Amino acid sequence: MTKAAVLQFLPDWLHAQQGGIERRETLRIEYDMSRLSRCFTTWRGAKIGDIVAYVRFHPRGEIVQGSVVEEVRAEGRPPGPVVAHRAAPLELAVPDDATRVEMWFHHFSQTSRRCDAWDSRFGENYWFDVGGPPPRSPAQPVVYRAGAQARADVTNVQTARVSKIDAFPRPASGPSVGKDIQTHLDLVAWVSHTAWGANAWIDVHVFDGGDALVHAETLPLAYAGFGPVQQYIFTGKIFQGSTATPGSVSPRPDARKVQFRLYYELDGQVFTDGILHQAELPEDALI
């Protein structure tokens, strides 16, 4: 059974930890809304606002974020407007290479005016040690491209989801008679501005369960900006795993980890958010 360490952020600016934070286990964050509440407001009959936890795992520096509240809607079919918010625990997987975790919280709402508030120990943030099995890092990680400028204010990853699926067509009835294991990436990258000739890409590495490199590729991102929103996206397969049909099997390495770095070229300069992004995957047998 997966062990979960619990970080409790309590009233009166207190916080407590239940259990040790360990690599490859679960971290649960419980946040008392009384710590940050002034930005919750009513707009056109509905309560609006959010409290988002930002969790940075060191040494790679990747940031994972998620809300620590949920909406409460008026009863009805369909449900009515939001009438309140309540605390909702956030659970995150601790990467297998993490040594420390840094955390802060952002409370905000947007109506005809903007409201922002922060819980960050006056800018120092909350820090916790990570233990468990020794940290693991692949011997052939995605290297930082020489000459690229680390400028998260120019480009950064907004959302990234790595998933493993069985893409074999499902029959209308009865069990599946084959397998087609694929690793997919859905990525949205923000850029501050764009111009003719600009382009974005990612350098991707895929590793097996022993952290051996099984695939490396550079993939272009497609521009998907609209109005004031400037962004690039990638949606699709990044690794082909094993396939099987009646009477035929094509074994391939079992993808268990994906790393990538984001780059954006603009006016002859190359920018990056400076983060080695990483995601861990289940074994093929569980798909």
Automatic annotation (TrEMBL):
Pfam families: DUF6209 (PF19714). InterPro entries: DUF6209 (IPR046181). It comes from the Bacteria. This is Uncharacterized protein. The lineage of its organism: Bacteria, Pseudomonadati, Myxococcota, Polyangia, Polyangiales.
